[in-house]
Amino acid sequence: MDKELLKGFIDILILALLTKEDMYTYEISKVIMENSNGEITLGEGTLYPALKRFYSNGYVEYYWVEKDNNLVKRKYYKITDQGREYLNSKVNDFKRLTLLVNKFL
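Structure tokens predicted for PadR family transcriptional regulator:
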């Protein structure tokens, strides 16, 4: 899939997943890859900056979960109400854009 085309949709994909459940970064990447049948892969260079931007804008919060008797700590991300509003706005923009593009096809 064209990476340039995907750039505008990464926010929607990540935040939509976080509306279903809190997730850590590897899990987000894995679910997106699985749900897209391998068509979409998000590397660290895409995922971490997006999550950092979401956090800075108040769209997500995070918390740490200790696993394996405190040997492993995972940072879980949780969407905020502000993040849900942002997601709804992006989804509406996507729907409008899809309608416009379809007029030309």
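The beta strands are 23-24, 60-67, 72-79.
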